[in-house]
Structure formats: structure tokens, C-alpha cells
From TrEMBL:
Family annotation (Pfam families): Plug (PF07715), TonB_dep_Rec_b-barrel (PF00593)
Family annotation (NCBIfam families): TonB-hemin
Annotated signal sequence range: 1-31
Organism taxonomic ancestry: Bacteria, Pseudomonadati, Pseudomonadota, Alphaproteobacteria, Hyphomicrobiales
Protein name: Heme transporter BhuA
SUPFAM superfamilies (UniProt xref): Porins
Length: 675
């Protein structure tokens, strides 16, 4: 009865905000017509003259920054700190961390202590990356070559529009486009990167070309990386930490007049790497693996310049990920695990105003279908399907200095396995309300209350088989219910220019959050299955992203403080998810020689935290890392950079690591050219 009451109340909120938007839109159109239209008149010759109707173009209120915990990692930051491994730049972002396996080249993003099994919706160009395996590792990696990235968009917390299937937020890895390769004022271009690093990093090369002919743009890129096992701070080799990566992409952009745009794209990823883990009867179990990831997208946009009520976006995708055990000394040789995903999202944004009230209304739907398959898959599901769908509406109301956002998203899922006659389905309405106020032109506090949910995965619901010799049989749990989250956030945005000189800029985003989670899913070894943990758990924390740039010098600080009483994920059927209590990332740099030379330092402190192993939980040790770098830009076309990572050869194991100690001191030299 309580759930039915909540559903009714939230449905009324969502329908109410939508109805108000429709009424206001109709009123705005009617008032606009009344103000701009007069009766037709007759001239001296007896001819009827029709009056001109003026359509008013309405833009949403401009604010200093979005009242939400959002971040964008630029291609400059990726080139400097994430080209060898994306974990480095992600772990420097407030509220964001990663689960690391030294031998796995994938990225497993953790937001606010939530990781794996879709708790964070990881995407490549908007296509969800739903490949997962149940093993001694993170339950979900994304496989993308950093050399092919243009930016990374991160949203922490509940999302009530497209991409909102995650419990704690989303990460979208956006790949290179035509405009990333062609320089301003040109119709064709080439972008190339070459780097070499010591301590196993080896060579990396990328070459991209693009051209624009009338309304058609084409871009293609090819990337290669060949690395070896690295040494840790003790000088010991960490086995199976090299990779042999070949990747590429292509995109074609079609512009139809000024209002229509269609982009077709594909990203190809092939990586040969290995895995190493202690054997149960002495020695080690070693495998050679091949990871193949294919992402194809078709994105259509229609945004007529004379109609602010239409801003249509239709995005479709197909993703195929296959992991093959090609060689090794264990019984899994020949294993193949595969996931295919297909889906689409459709949304429209209508913008209009009534007097001083500006309204930005987004509404739409999305659908995703996953299918699992493979050979000798072990405990992982096969011939199983997952269907997820959602409808959403979100309205942003802006009146003078006040901004209010009301949104609601209804999520539904259905999991099936015909062979075992298993079916699990459920749905839930998730509302969100944000109130922000621009106290001055540089200061904006805000508060948000929001719900989110995370559906059980096929891997959790349909766990089965025997993990390894001597182990018990795993059991599925078709009675799993979705994880549910309710949370508050209190934030502050500061954006001010010209503080000490004419060109300096200060940007600060700070927030305190609390997230209460019900029905959290974890593995129960005593039952050999995944279960919902009864009761409510809480995660709370404080995040700060502060940056100052004076032109000739700059500095920044990223800080995350986190507390969690979530139930521990069981080692062997996933990995630990607890963030270290405090994570501090400092950066500082200066520009010389007409700003052609840039030098800087990066420092990160990771405090102790709660770890998870087969004996239970433990206190992980703290550590400090220092990197230095320098970049010289010969001209607008060519630059040369040099950096040293782990400058003091720190002996450490990265927090949330499932295998491998940290890489020791490493030297990297790189160049980029663009014509």
C-alpha cells in the first residue's frame, strides 16, 4: 500500500509539472499571437493587406553554472594525464574513483562509493557498456582507447532524463569528431600523436584524418599501443600488466540545410592482454585474453532556428563485446563471454517564456535490450535477455534569479531466461526537484532532492554453475528487487572573472550529499547467490572542485570526503566499492616564453579506507603520489611534452585494486601534431 501511495503521489508530481508546462506553453503562444497580430486592413485600391506575424525567439535563462554535480574532463586533460591509463584522470575528479586491475585495460568507474552492475551508467558516445562477468574483479568495465577520446562527461547523483538508469550517476566517454581534427578555418585536417614511456609503457601512436565537403563531414582514426609488464616501487615486475591494443573509429556527419544533422559512427577496439592470479594448489593461474568491443551509433538532431519548441534528438546504437580466453594453463582456455546491446533514446526540448518566466522542458523515452551468449561461460548467464525502458520529463523554470527544476522518470525492466523459465520484472517512478538561486552574478547555492533505482543484472539474477574445481554450485535469484536510493544534496557554485587581473578566472563547485539506499544487492557466500540486504544503508560525503587561472599561472584542488555503511561486496563475486575517506588532488602550473612553455605539478593524497578481501573488511593504507610535467608548443601545429609519474617511486597498492601494486617511477615523452 505504501508503494502504491508513493507511486500515485510521484505520478501526480510528474503529470502536474508536465500539465503546467503545456498550459503555460499554450498561454505563451496565445499571448504572443495576441501581441504581434492585428486585424487585416484594406488599402485605397481595395486590396486586402495581411499583417506580419513576428515569432519571438526565446532562450533559456543563462546562469553561471549548472546547479548539479557535473564535470567534464577535456581532451587536454586526457592528453596530459589519461593517455596511458584513464584511471589517473578519473581518480582526480571529485566524487569519482575507479576499481583497478593492473592486468585489465578496462575502466570501472566508481561514483560516491557505488560501482559495478550498472550502478554507474558507463557509455561510449551515449551507448551503454553493459558487458559484465562475475569473477574476482569489478562487475563491469568499459573498453575504450584514451587516444580516441575527445572528452568525458560525468554526472554524479540521480538523473531523470536519458542515461538515468544508474543508481549513482553516469559517465559518457565521447570520441573524436570531425571538429576535433579539422582546425578552424579549414575544410580538411590531420591529427597525430606519438608517445613513448619507460617502465613498460612502450610506444603509442594515433593518426586521424578528416574532411568536410559542403554539408558532409568525414573523420577516421587508427590507434596502436604496445606495452609490457611494469615494475612497482620495489623494483618487482607485476606480471601480465602489458597490452597489445589496436583501435579505430569512423564517423560521417550529414547536414541537411541548417536544421537537420545525422551522424553515423563506429568505434572498434581489439586488445590482447593477460590475467594472473594465485592458484589454489600452488603456482599461478595465467591466461591470455582477447577483448573485442564494437560500438555503432546513429544520432539524428532536428533543431529549427525559427521554432524554439522543437529540439529533437534521436540516438540509436548497437554494441557488441566479446572476451575470449585464447591460451593459458587453466581449464578456461576456449571460454568466450559475449554481450550484445541495442537501443535508442528519443527526446525533445521545448523552450518558451511567459513574460519573465523562462521554461526549458525536456521529455522523451529510451529503450535498451541486452542479450548474453558464449561458450564455456562458467557462472555467467547464457541465452538470457534484459529489456529496460524509461519515459521521462524534466522542466526547468527560471524566473529572474530563481531557478527550479522538476523532473520525473519511470523505469521498467524485464529479465528472462527461457531455458530455466526465469523471469524478473519491476518498475518504479523516480522524481527529482532542484531549487537554485543566483544570489549575485557569481554566487549560486542550490538544493536537490532525488530518487533513483538500479535494476538487478542478468549476472546477479541468473548466477549459476561451478566457479572452479572444488567450489560449490552457484545459484541464481529470480526474486531480486531493484536497489532504491533517496538523497539530498546541498551545493554551491562560484564563477567570477577579473579578480586580480583582467584575464583571471575562478570556478568553484562544492556540495554535500547524502544517499539512503534500500535493498542493496550483494553476494552471500553462505547461500552461493546474490541477495537483497534488508534495511537502509547510507552514503554521505563532501566534494569540492576549485580552479583558478590567471593566464600566466594556474592551480586547482579536487577534494572528496566520503562515509559509507553499505554492506560489503563479497570478494570473488565482485570487488570492494568503498572510497577512501579522503582523496585530495592538487595541481599547479605556470606558463612562460609567450606561454609556449607550460610546466606543472600534480599531487594526490589517498587516505586510508575500508577494503574487502576473503577474510572480510580491512583498513587499506594511505599513500601520496607526485607527477611533474612540461609541454612546449612550437606553434599552433606541433607540441612536445614530457612528464614523470610517481616521481618519488612510491611503494603502494592503489585503493580499490583487485590485482597488482602501483606502477613505479615512469618517464613519458609525447608529441602531438595537427595540420
Amino acid at each position: 500500500m505504501q508503494q502504491s501511495s508513493n507511486l500515485s503521489r510521484f505520478l501526480k508530481i510528474g503529470l502536474g509539472s508536465t500539465a503546467i508546462s503545456l498550459i503555460v506553453m499554450a498561454g505563451a503562444a496565445q499571448a504572443q499571437q495576441a501581441q504581434t497580430t492585428k486585424p487585416a486592413t484594406e488599402n485605397a485600391a481595395g486590396e486586402v493587406q495581411l499583417n506580419t506575424i513576428n515569432i519571438k525567439s526565446v532562450n533559456p535563462q543563462e546562469i553561471t553554472s549548472r546547479p548539479a554535480p557535473v564535470s567534464t574532463i577535456s581532451k587536454t586533460e586526457i592528453k596530459l594525464n589519461g593517455r596511458e591509463k584513464l584511471d589517473t584522470v578519473l581518480r582526480s575528479t571529485p566524487g569519482v574513483f575507479t576499481s583497478i586491475n593492473g592486468s585489465n585495460p578496462g575502466v570501472a568507474v566508481n561514483i560516491r562509493g557505488f560501482e559495478g552492475s550498472g550502478r554507474v551508467n558507463m557509455m561510449i558516445d551515449g551507448a551503454p557498456q553493459n558487458f559484465r562477468t562475475t569473477a574476482h574483479d569489478a562487475q563491469g568495465y568499459s573498453y575504450i582507447d584514451p587516444n580516441l577520446l575527445s572528452s568525458v562527461d560525468i554526472t554524479r547523483g540521480a538523473i531523470t532524463t536519458e542515461g538515468g538508469s544508474g543508481l549513482a550517476g553516469s559517465v559518457n566517454f565521447k570520441t573524436l569528431g570531425v571538429d576535433d581534427v579539422i582546425m578552424d578555418g579549414k575544410d580538411k585536417g590531420v591529427l597525430g600523436r606519438v608517445s613513448w614511456g619507460s617502465n613498460g609503457v612502450g610506444f603509442s601512436e594515433m593518426l586521424a584524418g578528416a574532411a568536410r565537403i559542403n554539408e558532409i563531414g568525414i573523420v577516421a582514426a587508427l590507434s596502436r599501443r604496445d606495452s609490457n609488464d611494469y615494475k612497482n616501487g620495489y623494483g618487482d615486475i607485476v606480471e601480465k600488466t602489458g597490452q597489445e591494443l589496436t583501435s579505430g573509429l569512423f564517423k560521417t556527419e550529414f547536414g541537411f540545410a541548417e536544421d537537420h544533422k545525422l551522424t553515423l559512427g563506429g568505434v572498434i577496439y581489439n586488445n590482447k592482454y593477460g590475467t594472473w592470479q594465485p592458484g589454489y594448489s600452488g603456482g599461478a593461474t595465467v591466461y591470455d585474453l582477447l577483448m573485442q568491443n564494437r560500438t555503432f551509433t546513429a544520432n539524428y538532431k532536428y533543431n529549427p532556428t525559427e521554432n524554439d519548441l522543437v529540439d529533437l534528438a534521436v540516438n540509436t546504437y548497437f554494441n557488441s563485446t566479446k572476451l575470449s580466453y585464447t591460451d593459458g594453463n587453466g581449464s578456461f582456455v576456449g571460454r568466450e563471454i559475449k554481450t550484445e546491446s541495442v537501443g535508442l533514446s528519443v527526446s525533445n526540448t521545448s523552450r518558451f517564456s511567459v513574460n519573465d518566466l523562462y521554461i526549458d522542458w525536456k521529455y522523451g523515452a529510451e529503450y535498451n535490450h541486452d542479450n548474453t551468449g558464449g561458450v564455456n561461460v562458467g557462472v555467467n548467464p547464457i541465452d538470457s535477455t534484459s529489456d529496460r525502458s524509461a519515459v521521462f520529463t524534466e522542466v526547468e523554470w527560471a524566473y529572474n534569479n530563481l531557478q527550479v527544476l522538476t523532473g520525473v522518470r519511470y523505469d521498467y525492466y524485464n529479465l528472462e531466461n527461457d531455458a530455466d523459465n526465469v523471469k524478473n520484472s519491476d518498475g518504479r517512478l523516480n522524481p527529482k526537484v532542484t531549487v537554485a538561486y543566483n544570489v549575485t552574478d557569481w554566487l549560486q547555492p542550490y538544493v536537490t532532492y532525488a530518487h533513483s533505482m538500479r535494476a538487478p543484472t542478468l549476472q546477479e539474477t541468473l548466477l549459476g554453475g561451478i566457479a572452479h574445481a572444488g567450489g560449490g554450485r552457484m545459484k541464481g535469484n529470480p526474486n531480486l528487487v531493484p536497489e532504491k536510493q533517496r538523497g539530498w544534496e546541498f551545493g554551491l557554485n562560484i564563477a567570477q572573472d577579473g579578480i586580480l587581473n583582467a584575464e583571471d578566472k575562478l570556478r568553484i563547485k562544492a556540495n554535500y550529499f547524502t544517499m539512503r539506499v534500500e535493498d542493496y544487492i550483494t553476494a552471500a557466500f553462505t547461500q552461493n547467490q546474490f541477495v537483497n540486504v534488508e534495511g537502509t544503508s547510507e552514503v554521505r560525503g563532501f566534494e569540492v572542485d576549485a580552479r583558478y587561472d590567471a593566464g600566466f599561472a594556474y592551480g586547482g584542488i579536487g577534494y572528496t570526503h566520503s562515509k559509507s555503511d553499505l554492506p560489503a561486496q563479497q570478494a570473488g563475486l565482485g570487488s570492494g566499492q568503498y572510497l577512501p575517506e579522503d582523496i585530495v588532488s592538487l595541481s599547479a602550473g605556470a606558463r612562460f616564453l609567450d606561454r609556449k612553455l607550460e610546466t606543472g605539478i600534480l599531487y594526490q593524497h589517498v587516505s586510508s579506507g575500508q577494503g574487502v578481501d576473503y577474510a572480510g573488511t580491512y583498513k587499506s593504507p594511505s599513500y601520496d603520489l607526485v607527477d611533474i610535467f612540461a609541454t612546449y608548443k612550437f606553434n599552433e601545429n606541433v607540441d612536445l611534452s614530457f612528464k614523470v609519474t610517481n616521481l618519488f617511486d612510491e611503494k603502494y597498492t592503489p585503493a580499490l585494486s583487485t590485482y597488482g601494486s602501483g606502477q613505479g617511477r615512469t618517464f613519458v615523452v609525447a608529441t602531438q601534431f595537427q595540420f
